[in-house]
Amino acid sequence: MLDPKFIRENPDIVRQALKDRNDKFDLDKFIALDEERRKLMRQIEGLSASQNIIDSEMKNLLKEKKDIKAKIEEGKAIKKQLNELDGDFSKLDDEFTEQLQWIPNIPHVSIPRGHPSNNKVVKEWGSKRKFDFTPLDHIALAEKLDIVDFKRAAKISGSNFVLFKGLGARMERALINFMLDLHTQKHGYKEIFPPMLVNENSMHSTGQLPKLREDMYELQKDELFLIPTAEVPVTNIHRSEVLREEDLPIYYTAYTACFRREAGSYGKDTKGLMRVHQFDKVEMVKFVKPENSYDELEKLLNNACAVLELLNIPYRVLMLATGDLSFAAAKCYDIEIYAPGIDKWLEVSSCSNFEDFQARRGDIRYKDKETGKLKFVHTLNGSGVALARLVVSIFENYQQADGAIMIPEVLRPYMGGLEKISL
Question: Quick one: which of 66, 259, 282, 339 is 20 to 30 A from 79 by CA?
Fold first, then answer.
């Protein structure tokens, strides 16, 4: 969340940020609520000071063996006022806290403003493969090779779920292990295997709640949520903690299944593996000092890109415009990979710097050794990378004329040396 003091002192900056994001939050109403709350707080502080003075005066009168009845009555009147004002303040403070949760982060000055059509391609890598035959899409390939069973997945769970089989399941596992090994052995991340059910506080800390509740799978009886991304449990590892400056930066990577209702997916392409309710993902999360966070974002992006370069998958990197930025992010790069069978670019990673937005919500701080003061860390996260769209691109880019799929060379050690999937 944003610092209330920052909002108070920079309303025009916040107002412009809301406009750039096309967010309809009523900032003027919030500022009026804040002023009313602070006015009431000043009244309470004034009455509390008066009550302290009366208590002191009563002690002196008692020492002098004088009548204190008038002071007792005066104290009772103040106490009654305080009780009434405390109740009013509690209601205003709850409303203030709730409204503060709905204000998105301030976009970084370096990103494009406006509609998602203003997203800027900042990097392109690899070349689209030229086929001497008509390439199939991943659905036809998977069904022909019997490595993904969409019909039985629908029977078991419903539409937009996936059942990997045989070498399809093994490739999914190979990709996960390959990415975890890369990030831990080459990029310096510590591996985490976190819970995949989290409480409401965890969802609030990373910014999924309250805004994105309709897209989450909620277990109301248990007051838990299935995670939409490993970002949630991994970022919350250090919720309400004070970290040591010498321990920063902290890098974590984690594999989890991810669960999303895709409540806003109406009209989008949901065929095959394109948009599913449960998918696998390897995530990268960083806790860093504020002055280093944008350098760390570039490193994070390079770590995600390395996955695709080793797999030899053509990709491009987009710097997102303000209108396409997630609620909690200050700056975000999306990585898209090309799938020739469906002739589309598919997002497989978002690499974001949240600055201190999540850290404020989760109270994640570190102690500055030089000043001794507590400061909020900056948090970052990025997919490193997400399945199942990566599988779509591998199937379609590595297909052969006879319908077989070559296995990317870097995955072969994880597939027992197998070079291709064929009938």
Answer: 66
Cβ atoms of 346 and 263 closer than 8 Å: no
Backbone angles phi, psi at 398, to 5 degrees: -100, 10
Cβ 286 vs Cβ 381: under 8 Å? yes
Query: Does the pLDDT value for residue 388 go beyond 80?
Result: yes
Which of 268, 256, 399 shows the shortest CA–CA distance to 346? 268
Residue in the structure block whose two tokens are 């930066």: 249
pTM of the complete model beyond 0.90: yes
Do residues 395 and 411 touch, judged by C-beta distance below 8 A? no
Q: State the residue for tokens 């205003």.
A: 92
Phi/psi for 288 (5° steps) reads -140, 165
* pLDDT score at 61: 81
Helix, strand, coil % (nearest 5) of the chain? 45, 20, 35
Sequential DSSP letters for 33-61? HHHHHHHHHHHHHHHHHHHHHHHHHHHHH
Query: 345-384: per-residue pLDDT in tens?
Result: 999 999 999 999 999 999 999 999 999 999 999 999 999 9
> How many Cα atoms occupy the beta-carbon half-sphere of 304 within 13 Å?
33
CATH number of 4-100: 1.10.287.40
Query: 389 φ, ψ to 5°?
Result: -65, -30
Average pLDDT of the residues in 271-284: 94
- Taking each continuous run of H as one helix and of E as one strand, the counts in the chain are 12, 16
Residue extents of the structural domains in the chain: 4-100, 116-421
Q: How far apart are CA 155 and CA 120, in angstroms?
A: 41
DSSP line for 132-169: SS-PPPHHHHHHHHT-B-HHHHHHHT-TT---B-HHHH
Could you tell me the pLDDT band of residue 58, with boundaries at 50, 70 and 90? confident
- Cα dist. 47→60, 74, 161, 355, 380 in Å? 20, 11, 61, 39, 44
Torsion of CA 416, 181, 382, 386, to 10 degrees: 10
